[in-house]
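S., here's the first fold you wanted:
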Amino acid sequence: MIWMIFAGLLLMGLGALYFLRPDLVWKYTEQWKSYRADEPSDFYRLNTKIGGAVFFLVGLAGLIFSFFPL
């Protein structure tokens, strides 16, 4: 149960970061791959926000199911 709570909180934190700050995620994970890119594309931002929302929801589900198992 403890690991499920920790995993849920971790996924929720990462999901919030990906959703709220996709530019920061791009800076640390993708910017070094391109010498001409100054900022992430709109497509990257959209996909990162969608992924962040999914991470957050999966983390929330894990947190809820750790307290109320089926």
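And the second, which I think is the more interesting of the pair:
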Amino acid sequence: TARKRERKRKKKGERKSGRGDKRQHKTSPPLGFEGGQTPFHIIIPKYGYNYGHRVDTAHPVDLTQLVNGRGVHVDPLKRQYGVQLVEEGADEFDALVNLEVQWASELAIAAVESKGGVVTTAFYDLRSLDILRQPVPFFQRGQPIPRRQLPPQDLISSYTDPKCRGYLADQEEVRKAREELALRYGYTLPNLEQPELLAMLSKRKRPRQIFFGLAPGWLVSLADREVLKPTDPQLLEYYAAP
């Protein structure tokens, strides 16, 4: 007698994954299926729309603009305190910008100021830094803007030094340091006469201020598109304290 042929059992999804590939009997996998691996549209992170994908130099540039422009990534959880401006690409730099960073080398400062720009080094504590790099989630929580903390004792000398363009330095001393740096590197500071550019380049934050144009204690309502300001005398005294 002929030996009965035993049917070989296979594991589920061993050969064709139950789909097949024979003409009209085949079943195509869903769009984006990559053999069970993580699809590309999940691996690649989502980015919001950024017109031009560039930083708008018509306004002062701080950490908010640099992060939103995908230029840098700062993580306060890793104790990253901001951006360091280095001299790489100084020969190719050609922009008029009011730039605020946390540290800048001498040659990098010269590259910006030779084009008529301004560099300011400013300290942010980790909470203020997190608010500055992601302002929209903070505004959605409905909390007032806190006061920025002053730098620790070992950084006071750096942020009060006009040669470092510290935000706590005297502006007259900063002007003299700009002239000395221009004389050292052999360039002439541009004489800007346009009122709009002068107003943009002269904008500075106060030592306790986090955002340009928004003071500590103010509350930004994104839903109502309004800025709420405190009126209580005690709150005004607290947020106005140095």
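Why I say that: The mean pLDDT is 88. The radius of gyration is 28 Å.

Talk tomorrow,
H.
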